[in-house]
Design goal:
Order of helices and strands: HHHHHHEEEEEEEEHHHHHH
Pfam family, one: Acyl-CoA_dh_1
Number of strands: 8
Family: Belongs to the acyl-CoA dehydrogenase family.
Radius of gyration: 22 Å
CATH topology of the largest domain: Butyryl-CoA Dehydrogenase, subunit A, domain 3
CATH architecture of the largest domain: Up-down Bundle
Shape: globular
Keywords: FAD, Flavoprotein, Oxidoreductase
Helix content: 40-55%
Mean pLDDT: 85
Largest sheet: 4 strands, mixed
CATH class of the largest domain: Mainly Alpha
Distance between the termini: 42 Å
CATH superfamily of the largest domain: Butyryl-CoA Dehydrogenase, subunit A, domain 3
GO molecular function, one term: flavin adenine dinucleotide binding
Cofactor: FAD
Number of domains: 3
Strand content: 5-15%
Length: 409
C-alpha cells in the first residue's frame, strides 16, 4: 500500500470527541477546566486576538496580546511550573502539558511573556538570590514585565562561547559595552538577560557572567532587523556604557556559561507541546488547501502530506518522552537536541510543501493590502528554523559527540 492511500490526514489530524487522547497522569477534570476557561475568556474582547502572533507574526495586535497576558496572570494561568512560594501553581508535568495542548487547540494568541515565564523565571528560582526572586518574579507572574534574551552576537551565534560583549565593575554597577543580535522582541522588552565577558583576557566558556539588564536606559540602542517576511521581531542591541547594578548578577562572576545553558534547557520545556499543536494546525491548513485546489489528487503531494502528518505525531511522542525523562530527574542529555533538530527540519519542509501545494499561486499575493499568504509566510520564516534556538549543525555535533561518542569536531 502506498503511503497516503488508506490514510486521510485531513481527518486524522482532527481531535476526537474530547479533543484529546489524554496525557498519562493528568488530573481528573483539569483538561475540562482549562478548556472551559479558555472558551469563555476568548469569547469576549480577546476573541479578536485568536490565532495572532507567533514566529514571524509577533507584530500582530501586540498591545491586545499584552493585555491578554495580564488577563491570563490574573486568572492564575501563568508560571504554571513555578513553586507556589513564588506565585506559581506547581502543576504536575502532565497538567502543564494539558494546559499547553488546550491553549494551542483553542487558537489562543501567542503569548508575549514566555521568555520571562519559561526562561528567566525558572533560572532565578534555580540560581538567583532571594532578593532577586522577590524583585523580579512577581512582575513576570503578573504579566507586567516583558523580557528578552541577549546571547547571540554577530561573531558568536552558533559558537556562543566566542562572545565579546564585555562588562566591568564601576562602583555598584556593571558597565556594558558590545553588541547583541537576533534578540526577539527586545524593542518591546523591559528587561533582558545577557551573557557578557567580565574577566578581561578570558576565552571561550571562561570568564562569562549572567546579568539582568534594564532595557529602557541611555546607552542601549535597539535597531529592528527586517526579515524576508517584512516583519521585524528580531533586533540588534548595541551597548555603549549601559549600566546595571551589581545586584543584578545571577550567580557568581564567571558562572555565566553554566547558568546560560540552564536557561536554554528551560526553554525546551513543556511549551514545545503547544508549539507542536500549532504545527499540526498549520499542516491542517495546507491539507485543506490541497483539497480545494486539487493538490490532494496528486499522489506525490498526498504522499508528502501523509508523511508530514506522521512526522508531527513522531514529534509529539518524542517530546513527551523527553519530558517524562525530565520528570523522573533523568537528565535528557542530547534528547533536547534531537527534538530541536527534528522539529526545525520538519517545519522547514512543511513550508516547502505548502509552496508546492500552492503551485504558481505561490508567486502571487492576494489583493490589497498585498500581504503574504499564511503559506508564504510559513515558507519564508521557516528558513530560520534551522538556525535560531541552536543551529542544526550545532545540534548534530552535540548528538554525535554526546550520544554516539564520536571525536569532537
Amino acid at each position: 500500500m502506498a503511503p497516503g492511500e488508506a490514510v486521510d490526514p485531513g481527518e486524522a489530524v482532527a481531535p476526537d470527541e474530547t479533543g484529546s487522547r489524554g496525557v498519562a497522569g493528568e488530573s481528573a477534570g483539569f483538561r475540562a477546566e482549562v478548556r472551559g476557561w479558555l472558551a469563555e475568556a476568548l469569547a469576549g474582547e480577546f476573541g479578536a486576538a485568536r490565532g495572532l502572533g507567533g514566529p514571524g507574526r509577533e507584530h500582530e495586535a501586540f498591545e491586545l496580546r499584552a493585555a491578554w497576558e495580564r488577563h491570563l496572570a490574573a486568572a492564575g494561568w501563568t508560571c504554571l511550573s513555578w513553586p507556589e512560594a513564588y506565585g506559581g501553581r506547581a502543576l504536575s508535568l502532565a497538567d502543564q502539558v494539558v494546559f499547553h495542548e488546550e491553549y494551542a487547540r483553542a487558537d489562543a494568541p501567542a503569548r508575549v511573556g514566555l521568555i520571562g515565564d519559561g526562561m528567566v523565571g525558572p533560572t532565578l528560582i534555580a540560581f538567583g538570590t532571594e532578593d532577586q526572586r522577590r524583585r523580579f518574579l512577581p512582575p513576570i507572574r503578573a504579566g507586567a514585565a516583558l523580557w528578552c534574551q541577549l546571547y547571540s552576537e554577530p561573531g558568536a551565534g552558533s559558537d556562543l562561547a566566542a562572545l565579546t560583549t564585555r562588562a566591568h565593575r564601576d562602583g555598584d554597577d556593571f558597565v556594558i559595552n558590545g553588541q547583541k543580535v537576533w534578540s526577539s522582541l527586545a524593542h518591546q522588552s523591559d528587561w533582558g538577560f545577557a551573557l557578557v565577558r567580565t574577566e578581561p583576557g578570558s576565552r571561550r566558556h571562561k570568564g562569562l557572567s549572567y546579568l539582568l539588564v534594564p532595557m529602557r536606559q541611555p546607552g542601549i540602542d535597539i535597531r529592528p532587523i527586517v526579515s524576508m517576511t517584512g516583519t521585524s521581531e528580531f533586533n540588534e542591541v548595541f551597548f555603549d556604557d549601559a549600566r546595571t547594578p551589581t545586584a543584578n548578577l545571577v550567580g557568581a562572576e564567571g558562572d555565566g556559561w553554566k547558568i546560560g545553558m540552564a536557561t536554554l534547557g528551560f526553554e525546551r520545556g513543556t511549551f514545545t507541546v503547544g508549539q507542536q499543536i500549532g504545527f499540526k494546525r498549520e499542516l491542517e491548513r495546507v491539507i485543506a488547501l490541497a483539497k480545494r485546489n486539487g493538490g490532494w489528487d496528486r499522489p506525490d503531494l498526498r504522499d508528502r502530506l501523509v508523511r508530514a502528518w506522521i512526522g508531527v505525531e513522531i514529534m509529539r511522542f518524542t517530546a513527551l518522552r523527553t519530558l517524562a525523562d525530565s520528570a523522573a530527574d533523568t537528565p535528557p542529555g542530547p534528547a533536547s537536541s534531537i527534538g530541536k533538530l527534528y522539529w526545525s527540519t520538519w517545519h522547514q519542509r512543511l513550508g516547502e510543501l505548502a509552496m508546492d501545494v500552492l503551485g504558481a499561486d505561490g508567486l502571487l499575493v492576494e489583493g490589497e493590502p498585498y500581504e503574504l499568504r499564511p503559506e508564504q509566510s510559513l515558507f519564508l520564516f521557516s528558513r530560520a528554523d534551522t538556525i535560531y534556538a541552536g543551529s542544526s549543525e550545532i545540534q548534530r555535533n552535540i548528538i554525535a559527540e554526546r550520544t554516539l561518542g564520536l571525536p569532537r569536531a
